[in-house]
Amino acid sequence: MQQPTEASGSKVLPRSFTSGLPGQIVLVLQGGGALGSYQAGVYQALQESAIEPDWIIGTSIGAINASLLAGNEPRRRLERLQEFWSRVQRVPHWSFGGLRLIERWSSFTTLTQGIPGFFTPNPLAHYGTVFPLTADRAGYYSTAPLELTLAELVDFDLVNQGKPRVTVGAAHVQTSQMRYFDTRESRLDVRHIMASAALPPAFPPVRIEGELYWDGGILSNTPTEAVLDDSPRRDSLVFSVHLWNPVGPEPTTMADVLGRLKDVQYSSRIASQIARHQQAHRLRHVINQLASRLPESDRSNPEIRELLSHGCQTRMHVVQLLAPRLDHEDHTKDIDFSPAGIKRRWEAGYAHTKAVLASEPWRGHFDTLAGVILHEAKEVTRLAAE
Hints:
By secondary structure, this protein is α/β, with parallel strands linked by helices. The protein has helices spanning 37-48, 61-70, 74-87, 99-113, 144-153, 156-159, 190-196, 225-228, 254-267, 269-292, 296-299, 302-308, 339-359, and strands spanning 24-29, 55-58, 120-121, 141-142, 165-172, 178-182, 206-208, 211-215, 236-242, 316-322, 372-375. The protein contains 13 helices and eleven strands. Strands 1, 2, 5, 6, 7, 8, 9, 10 and 11 form a nine-stranded mixed sheet that branches. Strands 3-4 form a two-stranded antiparallel sheet. α1 packs antiparallel against α3 (74-87), α1 (37-48) packs parallel to α13 and α2 (61-70) runs antiparallel to α3 (74-87). 40% of the residues are buried. Mean pLDDT is 87; it is low at 5-17 and 379-386.
């Protein structure tokens, strides 16, 4: 896959750009299957601007991309992303009928034949809904090819060095609880990435420490809360990469309904998460302001000191990057592994991120009590099929 080239006349950011960034760099990568090529374009733009993440948080395809980044030296990260996304392309064997028909055929063959290097059909799953498959194989597809791909492209010794820190989310099957596996707390291996990407009923769960886990996206597909709830809190610039659009037109066909349902299901939590954390962090800043107005004798009181410990003065800028809707896309967009679909989303991620970095929305004067500042994605023009 060729890298997108920089458009003529676009702003080139100097190597000294990172000196003015407000805190640690956090990259939050949402789940979304084939839509994840947008995240690769985001990273390419960051790397070209000399911005490497200090922490990557991912779910599903976001966890896979996170492992490709953290499991390689910076000079090889883009190369590994390109290799992965080249391997999972569903290349058509014919080229007539127009791009839209080719992409529909690509999605159909993905469902029936799987994706090389990613997943293959599990014939036993079609013997009936009550056919005994065993818990570790209960899915319409096997992800054994993905395990081999990650073993080739990801160095887990590098992942566990914590540079960058990596966090991946998975859903505990039996308790419906979200669990974040974090290199700051324990060693990660290919099972943790596979678990985060084990979307049911397509993929079987993955067993870790004797427990089964599914794709974390079924509970929280945009795991921004992992950084907002982190302890100790740190000033941060968070690039939150969204693959599902929270806003969309009224559906008028069943295809529209199915597509809109996925957008709502996989994007719905982020707005409420941000709002809740904005309130909580504002209160922490209020506590910090009140503490400055207390006499020293009161601040030294153990009980008051305990109350004041809930305050803080950290500030987190959350920059949203939103993948565009492609012309003619439908509810199968997350399995559109066609070369054209991957290329257009990669290029969109690259262009959007370059534009955001050029505008530097985190610079300026902000409310002194604001601990979480959201820079929302602007409306993105629909990308027409070529």
